[in-house]
Design brief:
Shape: elongated
Structural class: alpha/beta
Strand content: 5-15%
Number of strands: 16
Radius of gyration: 42 Å
């Protein structure tokens, strides 16, 4: 009954077509009754063939169109999920996006199965590409939920699989169009054959019936041809083509409306793909550029350097690295505010880019540090000309709110072929050269050059020291720091020792100068820091979680962002031990041209909870102004002053001043080199509460230091 009603509605809605088709039999009346019957049957057969061809074509076209649409939707949601994962979005939105991706994968599988059922060529390739894309998508979602950065890499890596699946879907659509053309050709051929039969049968009836019948056939064939041409245009990529017959209420109107729906889906799919490309370009830019200055960031810098060093030996050896550190930048921030500092960084970054050549890379690799990489030819290396070109970019003042802001720069420049060792040695050479430049007055540069006379010797020493650092030959011994009032051990100073396989135990006086000359301070300091931080857990294990440890830090390490970054990485992995760790620096950092950078880096470390101690205080470098401006928690009075107690009254007056001054600034006072009871008694009377020296013991291996604190008693005083 329902089918009868459907047929009635279809016939009623197509009444205009029926009238035109029946015109010939009506005109010919009884004399053409047979001819009308044959003609009607002919046209009816044509219509059935055409409708059957379109009904077969329409699902295939819809499924073929759905495949790239679902692929694009999955890819867009996957990139959105990756971006949310990096910025920490969680909850229902994240869960909804994952469900949407899984639902689209299932829909895509159904569409591909439908295409496989249609027997189109190329479905096997599409199924294979879908399997790879589904596996990559599942892996990417799992990585995004576990690690946003790895997930983002997997998402970008899966783009090639997405493109392969999209290309397979395009070929499927082409196969569908080819089948459509073949079907249309077969229909036309069958129609022509029936037309010939009709002409033969209608010879008796005359030309009038033939002309009228052909005119009636055109009523159906012409709209079909127009719609087929429209579908071909859409599948060829012309999405602006006008779809005809949309306003008609007959069968052709419904076909035209389906074609229009297909056009809307294709337009939406293209818009989604375009949006995805734009978003991907934005994400790539953000990932490789500094947000403030717009120049390359540290990630892009490392990528560029690794690629340049992986090139041919000739090209890699000619690579030049410039490390540029701004002088006087902190006073600009302190005086005029961070907006002024940002304006200086942005303006100078643009100037540095203009001073670079095409193919060079300018990157911001730290707060006020820039790295510049210059691929060049060996014969054209002129470090003075290169450095002065970039120094000139910094010399001109920067205008800000009616003020002219002046900063300087120190440049370390190094050529890869001038450095023995790997990438780390190359970077360390630039750090060392920049630090040397910092010691000069005014904007300056220093070019790293190997000492030809001592090159073989230096290479052997470097290899020996690098091997010792890597194999654990450098160990830490601990000298007790005691409470002078009770004799209780309250902490230890870590002192490096080299367990040389041939020369025995070596003290820092023997090897520290070598480490500094060869630029291995950062690697050495990282090894010592790692041991000291790890040994804190050993004191916890014997029930002394109150014990603090300290070690000496070279000012050249604290002066560079790369040196501080390694310490920050260690502290980030051991947040709980930071308040029990003290970094000891010497007074000479106060008058170094790197003092502003050292102070800024010291603040960064103290913000993580680390304590700063001024070692060898009183040796003639520091001033009250420096003490007031520098973040420190402890002052260690040099042993030269302590040894004069009871022998030189002027020295005792100076010691009294140190204790009074440090106590007034809220710092702990530690006296170094205490050897006698008289020295200890004098310091206690003057308010110095902590001390070190041979009176309380020499530097001990870790197990002996643990045994000392495990007993819990005061140290035995000698001397």
């Amino acid at each position: 009954m329902l089918a009868d009603r459907s047929r009635f509605r279809i016939r009623f809605s197509n009444w205009s077509i029926v009238v035109r088709v029946m015109a010939a039999p009506i005109v010919m009346l009884v004399t053409l009754a047979l001819l009308s019957f044959v003609g009607w049957q002919t046209l009816k057969t044509q219509r059935a063939m055409i409708a059957a061809g379109y009904e077969e074509l329409q699902p295939v076209l819809i499924h073929a169109a759905n495949v790239p649409q679902e692929l694009a939707r999955i890819e867009a949601h996957l990139y959105k999920l990756s971006a949310w994962g990096q910025i920490g979005v969680e909850g229902s939105e994240l869960e909804s996006t994952i469900k949407t991706i899984n639902r689209s994968l299932r829909t895509l599988k159904l569409d591909i199965n439908a295409l496989a059922g249609a027997g189109l060529a190329g479905v096997d390739e599409l199924q294979s590409a879908y399997g790879d894309y589904r596996k990559n998508t599942k892996n990417a979602m799992q990585l995004i939920l576990r690690n946003a950065t790895l997930g983002a890499v997997a998402t970008r890596g899966g783009h090639a699989v997405y493109l392969r699946a999209s290309e397979a879907a395009r070929r499927i659509s082409e196969n569908a169009r080819m089948r459509s053309r073949a079907r249309t050709a077969a229909t036309i051929e069958a129609a022509d054959r029936l037309a010939r039969d009709f002409i033969t049968a209608s010879t008796i009836a005359g030309l009038l019936a033939i002309v009228i019948s052909l005119a009636a056939a055109r009523t159906i064939v012409n709209p079909i041809h127009v719609l087929v041409r429209t579908i071909r245009s859409l599948l060829a990529g012309d999405l602006a083509v006008t779809v005809p017959f949309i306003s008609r209420t007959d069968e052709f109107g419904r076909i035209a409306q389906s074609v229009k729906a297909l056009q809307d889906v294709l337009i939406e799919n293209r818009a989604t793909a375009d949006q995805h490309e734009v978003k991907q370009a934005e994400l790539e830019y953000i990932a490789t550029h500094d947000a403030l200055t717009g120049v390359a960031n540290r990630k892009a810098f490392d990528t560029f350097m690794n690629a340049a060093l992986a090139a041919s030996p000739e090209a890699a050896g000619a690579l030049v690295y410039i490390l540029l550190d701004l002088d006087g930048f902190k006073p600009v921030n302190d005086t005029y505010g961070h907006d002024a500092g940002d304006a200086v960084l942005k303006r100078l970054a643009k100037r540095l880019e203009r001073s670079a050549r095409p193919g060079d890379l300018v990157a911001r690799i730290g707060g006020d540090e820039f790295g510049i990489l210059l691929p060049m030819q060996d014969g054209r290396y002129d470090p003075e000309a290169i450095a002065n070109r970039f120094l000139d970019s910094v010399r001109a003042p920067v205008a800000f709110n009616g003020q002219e802001l002046h900063v300087g720069a120190s440049i370390g420049i190094v050529r890869r072929s001038d450095v023995e060792g790997g990438t780390a040695a190359f970077i360390a050479a630039a750090d060392q050269a920049m630090y040397i430049a910092k010691q000069e007055a005014g904007p300056s540069f220093h070019a790293f050059r190997p000492n030809s006379a001592a090159m073989l010797s230096d290479l052997a020493e470097r290899q020996e020291l690098e091997a010792a650092i890597g194999s654990g030959e450098f160990v830490v011994c601990y000298q007790p720091k005691v409470d002078l009032r009770s004799g209780a051990v309250v902490g230890f100073e870590g002192l490096a020792r080299w367990k040389h396989p041939v020369r025995g135990i070596l003290t820092p006086a023997i090897f520290l100068s070598q480490i500094g000359r060869l630029g291995l301070q950062r690697e050495f300091s990282e090894v010592i820091a790692r041991q000291v931080i790890g040994d804190i857990a050993a004191f916890d294990a014997v029930g002394r979680s109150d014990i603090g440890l300290s070690f000496n830090l070279e000012d050249s390490v604290l002066a560079t962002s790369s040196g501080v970054a390694a310490l920050e990485g260690l502290l980030a992995a051991h947040v709980s031990v930071a308040p029990r760790l003290t970094l000891e620096i010497t007074e000479k950092v106060f008058v170094s041209r790197s003092s502003a950078a050292i102070r800024a880096h010291a603040v960064r470390l103290t913000n993580l909870g680390v304590r700063i101690a001024v070692d060898d205080f009183g040796t003639g470098y520091g001033t009250l102004r420096h003490l007031r401006a520098f973040p420190f928690h402890e002052i260690k009075i040099d042993r030269e002053f302590i040894s004069c107690i009871g022998q030189d009254r002027s020295m005792e007056v100076i010691i009294d001043g140190f204790i009074s001054m440090g106590t007034g600034l809220g710092a702990d006072i530690v006296a170094e080199g205490i050897e006698t009871e008289a020295q200890e008694r004098y310091l206690v009377q003057r308010g110095c509460h902590f001390g070190q020296g041979y009176r309380y013991g020499i530097a001990l291996p870790l197990d002996e230091a643990l045994g000392l604190v495990r007993r819990g008693a005061a140290v035995s005083r000698t001397g």
